[in-house]
Amino acid sequence: MRIFEYMGKELFNRFGLPVPKGKVVSCADEAALAAAEIGPVVIKAQILSGKRGKSGGIRFANTPAEAKSIALELLGANIRGYLVEKLLVEEKLAVDQEFYLAVTIDEGAKSPVIIASNQGGIDIEEVPENRILKVHTDVELGMYPFIARNIVRRLGLDLGSQHGKELVKAILATYQVFQEKDAVLVEINPLVFSGEKVFAADAKVIIDPDARFRQKDIPYVEGQTETEKLAQDLGISYVELKGDIAVMANGAGIAMSTLDILLHYGGTPANFLDVVGGTDTETIARALEILLAKKPKVIFINIFGGSTRCDDVARAYAKVKKKGSGIQVPVVIRLVGTNQDEGWRILQECGIKAYTDMEEAAAKAVELAVHAPAGSSS
Amino acid sequence: MHQQVVLAKGMVLMAIIVNQNTKVIVQGITGKQGSFHTRQMLAYGTKVVAGVAPGKGGITYEGVPVYDTVQAVLENHQVDATVIFIQAAIAKDAVMEALEAGIGIVVVITEHIPIHDELEFISYARRKGAILIGPNTFGIISSGKCQIGIPPNQFFIPGPVGLVSRSGTLAYEIAKKLAAAGFGQSTAVGMGGDCVKGLTFVEILKLFEADPETRAVVLIGEIGGDAEEEASVYIKEMTKSVVAYIAGKSAPPEKQMGHAGAIIRGGRGTYQGKVKALSKAGALVAEMPSEVPEIISKLLA
Question: Which of A208, A217, B46, B62 has its CA 20 to 30 A from that of A259?
């Protein structure tokens, strides 16, 4: 879960990593007030996307009037597909030197990695490999000042200098945010020297969504559609796509494979939906209702029961069918695995025959979608 | 390391990691998932010798004696492997308990474990020389011998194909198709769907390469991460054929499709990149799941 820059900077501040003086505003008058208090400012659109500078989301203002007119322009604007609702109005720093600093997880090495470069301020992908320092840490050993001192030394700084000492502290604080806030990425680009001091001029922080239960102070940041949120509350995984065949599967791998196969046969999936293992009848029924609400031409349910049980899936179908307006679109169900016989029996009572082969079922779903009467899709 | 674990017990290398002699305990045996799958494991013939449920020690559940702690189990039983059915927020405690007690094979079924917790227990497992399978895995099944985890029993029959997968349900899907074509599996291993994993493709492929029962290997991958690219480096050296299927060909970039591991980042981990790496290494890449048994039957005919 990515959080906004200003939230990241609040975290940095709490962990002792200096950030430029600033204010978060949501109207133009507040922006003018902030500029009057701070002086020359940089105004940054708070959106969950990079490359803001290149898309006009980062602007400079010398006076409150200028700040106001920029804020008027930015608030409510759409930048890189995101609606701008908040701005960060920040002290414009005199920048002497820019660094890149990040802590993330190296999946292959199965350990955290600190990434640093003295070529900050540009996309790290554009920095030559030999100018990027990567230092893996041992999770059992943890973080120590000596590790930060070695990084600073290898970046070519004097450890006895004020800058050297400040940078050691900044690296330790960044690592602490990563460790204590269950982050999967803490990226500062640039980390700047301004006079004697070091500041995090930007903050890109991604928190592990699986650790939200113990990171309750971090506000929930939405980057999803309404349906995706609804699905998340149910504990299922849902991604909206553009086609007309609604898909439900269990397991991310088989769900992705289901989309691949539909496309192979010339169909277009309306979504990715993974009901995740061990789901009960009620949850599957609600997932089915989510799909129905999107008014697809066909619903394709592809279940290979492991911890998801076929009888639970069949009961969910029966339940939704009996309720309210029932199910008005054709449904193709492929159902095999745990408690398969019971699942098939329940479906038979509903007058529907389950498929055993997923390719055959997918082909049928595509055929039905192609021949669906016009106007049955939204 | 892993071969030594198996050989030290004087077993023949038939199937990998677990076999008919493997003694298993279930941590979280009294929970909904734990109890259901204990029944399934017993039905498959797995030697489940005990369960762990703190506060419930002394009872018998599903015909299996239950203890309060792993240490209490070890005072009364010989144990080779454990399977973890403990909710994500407290799973680390259970995994560490098993590792600290010296259990050599730890299968972590639980999904949604915080990644920082996973890093810690994977690191500790490495230090203890234990095999950690998962997290977020369906487990491991040596067909006809031993099933540890949650795979549906009926599709896993003994045979010459080794199977390793990042996804559970896709592994079942392909195991079923293989079985229907007359090809059983020596062992099927779920590598797990999270970003970080205990056992990796390469380690599992090495074991299959050395296993006399395995004649060919099916590798089921998906977009995101670089596990398949890493596996390709080893596949080049293998004498046994590898058939691969990769899910996520149609996934839009930057969208996360369920598995934490399945994110495409900065051009790495794309479908095309993986297929290219695997093909170059000599693996045969199936376009559709149904092609896997077709390729296998040509190879093993």
Answer: A208
| B175/B57 same-domain check | no
B99, B143: one domain: no
How far is the alpha carbon of B47 from chain A, nearest alpha carbon, in Å? 20
Smallest Cα distance from B76 to chain A, Å: 30
What would the pLDDT profile of A292-327 be if each residue is shown by its tens digit?
A: 988 999 999 999 987 788 999 999 999 999 987 788
CATH number for the domain harbouring residue B198 = 3.40.50.261
Q: Does B211 touch chain A (CB under 8 A)?
A: no
Kindly state whether residues A242 and A160 are assigned to the same domain. Answer: no
| Count of structural domains, chain B | 2
Least Cα separation, residue B31 to chain A (angstroms): 12
Residues B103 and B146 in one domain: no
CB atoms closer than 10 angstroms to residue A76: 9
Which residues span the domain enclosing B109? 2-133
Closest alpha carbon within chain A to B222: A253
Facing B196 at nearest CB: one of A105, A182, A277: A105
Q: The domain that contains A81 carries what CATH number? A: 3.30.1490.20
Task: Report the alpha-carbon distance of residue A42 to residue A9 in Å, rounded.
Answer: 15
Asked if B37 lies within 8 A of A307 by C-beta distance, the reply is: yes
Is A377 part of a structural domain of the chain?
A: no
Each residue of A244-261: pLDDT tens digit?
999 999 988 899 999 999
- Look at residue A375 and tell me if it is in a domain: no
CB A11 within 8 A of CB A215: no
Please judge whether B176 and A304 are an interchain contact, meaning their C-beta atoms are less than 8 angstroms apart.
yes
Interface check A243 vs B, CB under 8 A: no
Same domain assignment for residues B144 and B129: no
User: DSSP string of A210-267?
Assistant: GGGGG-TTSPP---S-HHHHHHHHHT-EEEE-SSSEEEEESSHHHHHHHHHHHHHTT-
Q: Closest chain B residue to A252 measured between Cα atoms?
A: B258
Q: Which domain holds residue A163?
A: 97-214
Same domain, B19 and B98: yes
Q: How far apart are CA A145 and CA A164, in angstroms?
A: 12
Residues of A in contact with B248 (CB under 8 A): 256-257, 260
Q: What residue has token string 């600190």?
A: A114
Same domain membership, residue B147 and residue B47: no
Say whether B256 and A213 touch across the interface (CB within 8 A): no
Name which of B172, B222, B247 is nearest A337 (Cβ-Cβ).
B172
- CA-to-CA separations, A44 to A184, A188, B211, in angstroms, rounded: 24, 15, 59
Which pLDDT tens digit goes with each residue over B128-155? 999 999 999 999 999 999 999 999 888 8
Q: Which of A68, A91, A114 is the last residue of a domain?
A: A91
B105 and B205, same domain (yes or no): no
Output the domain CATH number for residue B58.
3.40.50.720
